[in-house]
Automatic annotation (TrEMBL):
Lineage, uppermost ranks: Eukaryota, Viridiplantae, Streptophyta, Embryophyta, Tracheophyta
GO biological process: lipid catabolic process
Gene3D superfamilies named in the record: alpha/beta hydrolase
Protein name: Triacylglycerol lipase 1
Entry-linked InterPro entries: AB_hydrolase_fold, AB_hydrolase_lipase
Length: 234
């Protein structure tokens, strides 16, 4: 068992992620102007206030703007509940999957949720939320009622969202990033890693439940879930 506050090496991180998945815990040079495109919102309402702060974890909210105008929410958990801030390990970026948001990494208990486990083991945890999800519904010029707000594909998530979020984390942490993606977060990561400006910020990646395409989906349950915006309901 890793002692609280002691950071793991990259191979150990991959093993930890794999063990968490088996146990059910997985359920759940960058642009120089990156900092100017971000507005930290420490203590503001959001995922931090609703989930992390009540559990005793330090957490700050950040907003990153993509090159195509979307305003994305990022959460930063610098360490666990043990209060050790000077022994922070490498930055870990957690990217959720389809129909989900950053809260997916914290919905189980502290012992079963990967976000909590990483923070308690000394990692510098960052949580991404792509456009259109519960925590990322802003845009510099569009509203959620505009058709253009929803005119994008997962390729845009890789090209714009992943790049913008990783660029900010890299700029703040001044360190290469350990990327953890789940479901859609895996294909987004792989696509983003084909871009030189993104892959140079990555030290390693753990891909949970990797997927590619979901063409010609006809299952009534899936279509119903999309129509209901299920990611906001659960």
């Amino acid at each position: 068992m890793v002692r609280p506050g002691k950071a793991l090496a990259a191979p150990q991180l991959l093993l930890l992620v794999f063990l968490c998945l088996l146990a059910g815990g997985a359920r759940a040079s960058p642009p120089t102007d990156a900092l100017r495109r971000v507005s930290p919102r420490a203590g503001a309402g959001g995922l931090c206030q609703q989930l992390l702060l009540p559990q005793g974890y330090p957490c700050t909210e950040h907003t990153v703007q993509t090159d195509d105008g979307f305003l994305l929410s990022l959460q930063h958990i610098p360490h666990g509940r043990n209060g050790i801030a000077d022994n922070t390990g490498p930055p870990v970026f957690l990217q959720h999957g389809l129909f989900q948001g950053g809260d997916t990494w914290f919905i189980n208990s502290n012992e079963q949720s990967l976000g909590y486990i990483l923070a308690d083991n000394g990692f510098d945890v960052w949580v991404g939320n792509v456009r259109g999800t519960r925590w990322s519904k802003g845009h510099s010029t569009l509203s959620v009622h505009d058709k253009l707000f929803w005119d994008w594909s997962w390729q845009d998530l890789a090209e714009y969202d992943v790049l913008a979020m990783l660029s900010y984390v890299y700029t703040v942490a001044q360190s290469k990033i350990l990327y953890v993606g789940h479901s859609q977060g895996t294909i987004m990561g792989l696509a983003a890693f084909t871009m030189p400006e993104t892959v140079k910020m990555i030290s390693s990646a753990a891909l949970l439940c990797p997927i590619s395409y979901l063409d010609h989906v006809s299952a009534s349950f899936v279509l119903r879930a999309v129509a209901m915006h299920l990611d906001e309901v659960i």
